[in-house]
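Pipeline run #58 for the internal structure catalog. This entry was flagged by the ingest filter as a single-chain record with no existing model, so it goes straight to prediction. Upstream metadata was stripped on purpose; only the residue string is passed forward. Reviewer on rotation: M.T. Logging verbosity set to normal.
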Amino acid sequence: MGLGSLKDSQPASETALAPPPSRAAFAFIFITVTLDMLALGIMAPVLPKLIIQFEGGAMTAAARITGVFGFTWAAMQFVCAPLLGALSDRFGRRPVILLSNFGLGIDYMVMALAPTVGWLFAGRIISGITASSFPTAGAYVADVTPAEQRAARFGMLGAAFGLGFIVGPAVGGLLGSIDLRLPFWVASGLSLLNAAYGFFILPESLPPERRACLSWRAANPAGSLTLLRSHPELLGLAATAFLYFVSHEVLPSLFVLYTDYRYAWDERQIGLALAAIGVCSTIVSAMLVGPAVARLGERRALLTGLGFMAASSLVFGLMPSGALFLIGVPIAALAGLAGPALQALATRRVDADAQGRLQGALSSLRGIAMMLGPLLFTQSFASALRVGGRRLSGTPFVLAALLMVGSAIIARRATRGSRG
């Protein structure tokens, strides 16, 4: 449960203990994450409309409730991700992943049958809890992958996220046009099918002799963050990750409002731009992360990705026309080098029996960012409009770029002795 080696090369003890890479096992994890994100994406275009229906068409009340739903889902991620990560360190990855998939399937069924917005809210809480299995999937990848190949595998997981979010909303919109509750039934079927598939296919990646004792102190959100303070380099990577996660929230929070206000984009233009972002991000995650990390090393790939993210934020915030705004899309996609490289660097700094807690702690940081980021960027957007109107409307993106510069400075210092 202690720290792993901090040397540039993979320690011999890790090599001896690590199981051989399993393509079939990783393929299942890839499919699991894809289907989970597809299920979440399918609900994205219809959940707000269902809330509007429950509220009798009152847009203001529906907007407020939708915001509460999003905040609550992120809060559940913050609370439950470290718990599920710790449980996977104690009992293995397989039962946590399978039970989470099964739980998601039942939850989407409850949401499909929800008679009131209260029932829908309860379903969203359960969804936030069961979707916290994502860190366990990350720990599984760390279990079955040699350290030098982890960045590429984490990049493939990023591609699974992107693929689910590209296809999901399109499928959800099509199904929702038939019946608003149909997407929930389809999401339920995908999750239950995934659980059944994994029951017969997925092997355990963490043998009993490498499991940790369950510590409830380490499994709670505050306790899980203690792991991130266990060494200055890991703490620096955690600070880098937090600023990265917060900055990443600027697009989900403001894309529709900003492009509508500044460039007068309609729904079709917004949809095409979002699809372009998803496609470019998936290409980078699936095809470029592995070769880039192999050529640059994990440290330089991380710093390069953070640089691209800062540059894309500046482009989004400063370009005077929609056509020029689109220049930032491929640049933003190249920022996808940062996340997998950061995860790979972090996994080198803990032992095998702490990989679940590490992924849970990082997910807790993401949960905090998902709660704070939207507030930070939407409020700064509103303030900028009050002060300077269209002229200052890009202020939140400039703020995100500054956060990325700070993140890159911290990362450079924290990884000074690392490869690349």
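catalog note: Confidence is low (pLDDT under 50) at residues 1-21.
catalog note: The radius of gyration is 21 Å.
status: ready for reviewer M.T.
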